[in-house]
Amino acid sequence: MVLPDITQSLIDRGLLYSDYYWSGSVITYSIPNGGTSWIPGYEEAAAGASYSEFTAAQAARFVSAIELWDSYIATSLVQVDDGSTYGDIRIAYTDIADVRTWGYAYIPPYAGGSSVKPGDIWVDTANKGSLYAEGSYDYMALLHEIGHTLGLKHPHEWPVLSAEFDSTAYTLMSYNSSFEWRVSFSATGYSYGRVDSATPMVLDIAAIQSRYGADLATAAGTNIYRITDEMTLSRRAIYDAGGTDTIDLSALSRGSRLDMRPGASSDLGYFSKADQIAAAKAAYPGMSSRFIEQAFDNQKYLPYEWTNNLGIAFSTLIEKAVGSRFNDRIFGNEAANTIDGGLGADILYGRQGLDWFHGTIAALDNTTFGDIAPGETITFNDRGATVTRIRQSDPFTEGDVFTEIYVRTSPNGPEQKVKLFGLDTATLFFEGATVTVGGTADDEIFVGRVGNDLYSGGGGGDTVDYSAARGGLRVDLGSTAAQSVGGGFGVDKLLSIWNLIGGAGADRLTGSDAWNEISGGDGADLIAGRGGNDTLIGGAGNDTLDGGTGADAMFGGAGNDIYVVDDISTDTPFFGIVGDTVREDTVAGIDDGGRDLVQASVSFTLGRFVENLTLTGTAAIDGSGNELANVIIGNRGANHLFGFDGDDILDGGAGDDTLRGGAGRDSLTGGAGKDDLDGGEDGDTYYVDGADIVMDSGQSGIDLVVSRGGFVLKTGSGIENLRSVETAANANLTGNELDNAITAYGANNLLYGAAGNDTIRAGAGDDVLRGGLGSDRLWGEQGADTFLFVRGESLAITGRDGADAIFDFATGEDRIDLNIFSGSAPEAAYAEVEFASSGFTALKKAAEAAMTGGVKAVFVAGTTDGWLFWSTNGSDGTADEAVRLMGLNSIAGFDRADLI
């Protein structure tokens, strides 16, 4: 028995032409007939080449060989007529000069292109009489040439396949038939017969499926592969896409060594050289012993010992096996195998998976078990069989280590004793006709299997492993009732089981009140721990982990995980840790990835590699971030939220909250209630209402307050900018001593810059804009806006670049309130002048020259902009204050009616 130690890449390299293949989802084939067309100059089909066609019977064998290849691959091989049009693959006879050449084939076109000769198979006319029977050399050669037409090469061609696999036991593309021959005797002597491959072998199947994909419909149901003596005279491989399948050896005349692992080769009907010699001597007693022995010692013809005659494709998983009436060795695979050794002193190995061994009393007697594991069962198939008792041997008094199981086949019948080997270390339970390998005081792992099972743990931390699940699981360790666990398994009962291993699907795994360890595996799992100090491991996928009560350790693994935390203090520390812990480094110090969320009903600080925190419930609890860009959301209580490093988002929710951003460009939202917000270092954004207090203790970066209503930036707060939300119904906004940018959107707002060189944008609505002290830049934007200037806030002595400026004044719509008139400006108090200059001093002098006869306000249209100068000390001819009207360089751009 052999499991090839080879990778898929080495198989592809050794057996595939890298750049020659058919493209598309269909490859056609046809069989030439009298109406076949050939391109001019096609030498094999020329009149002198003795071109001829396959007979109907031979054509049928060719079709069977094509269909065998077709059964392996997703690409379809479809027969078409051969005439004026023809298939990609064709076959016919021609004269081949080299008598050693059985035939040849043209490989597919380069890079999936198209051409005429690629795919054509030519067989030497010397083979025209062949029946192409399965298992014959001619049939193997036919399969070989079809392999070429699909893009398979010889393993000895560069790049070569490893020499240990250059044999027809692994690939029928090889020229080496393992150098093994069958030795047959008759009354007149002996002869040698070839051992050929009746199907493509495991490496052929792996290569062709790598090139064209696997056919997932082939033998996808329940199939029984019954092996006969005749079949073992040649080699073959099984490809089975799915279902529950059985290899049945019961018809064989000798014992076998069956290996059920994908890719493995088995020895069916194993017949050693020594046994063959003994059998020949017994069958022909009158024949010289030396003569018989010489037949097996021929250096040219190595004797075939019935080895490596059945391969199982790497893409195939066989679940069941039935042995012969002789001594078999059967080795299972990773599936939950069902193995019936049959009669004989068998050796049965389950390997991985929760396996079921069964047979009659006679068949199981003297059977040896290997790799027996907790949860696996042995069942007696006899009608009415009932196990009555089990006895373990005493090696000190009895020598051997064995288990005796006593079975009755009728209520009052005698006990029959069955001796089994390999079970001495297991604790066995029996019910009815079944013996179950159960739990011990040690930690046991039960591997889940198809069917309805009972998993009974002992005093240790026992585990049920459902990692082979095909679909989502629903398992509750807190339930002692039978439960349908899903995932392709059955209805199971779990007793005294502490731990679970999930599969690759979206599992729902629930613990008990014990200290559980639950691993979800791949998939988006929901894992709940219930009571106890649990360890929950999400694995890959977007998992939700809820430890329940107790101090739980939770590892989300890869994906965007959610952790539910409800414990920060217990009387019993869990391995030195008090309260729930959240880890996103399954391997310490290495980030598992994803953006993860902790939902905590207690105060909590995020650990490394965990990004987000949401506080739940109504209690006044705290939440703290880490060095990452965190999202921290409060609950309805009075929370303290700390972002620390990183560009954090803090949202207090309801309640009177305290938010501290720390380093980084943070976003702080107070929510309902009277909140205290401090962004700390760098430029932060605050979302507030009028009741909130905002400070920037870091005094670095440019900060922004976004208010749902009116808001005042406090002096000394360190906040530069202020704006309303776009939907605010009223947003009276007031700046502070800094250079503020104040922005409103809709509604009729009062915007006041206070001190500093401010920039104010009013948005839609009829707004009032007051720059306050400093050189302010004002935009009224949409609506009829009023620009308010209070005495002493717009002194004209500051010069051209230091004055306030209005950038979008609309005469006839907007107004300027100089706070020197009662109502509209009187005609006698207003004058307007055009003056060809843009210099502030010249324009100011022009305004003062016009301040005669009671004129208090003068609009001067300069060459670039307009200026409005006014006196706050009556008509003394002095322009005390001024505002620049950007772009209004004509007296038509301003009117006395614009003043109030």
From TrEMBL:
Keyword Isomerase: no
InterPro entries registered for this protein in UniProt: Hemolysin-typ_Ca-bd_CS (IPR018511), Hemolysn_Ca-bd (IPR001343), MetalloPept_cat_dom_sf (IPR024079), RTX_toxin/Mannuronan_C5-epim (IPR050557), RTX_toxin_determinant-A (IPR003995), Serralysin-like (IPR034033), Serralysin-like_metalloprot_C (IPR011049)
Protein origin, superkingdom: Bacteria
Region listing for Disordered, in residue ranges: 661-681
One term under GO cellular component: membrane
Localisation: Membrane; Secreted
Keywords: Membrane, Repeat, Secreted, Toxin, Virulence
Name of the protein: Ca2+-binding RTX toxin-like protein
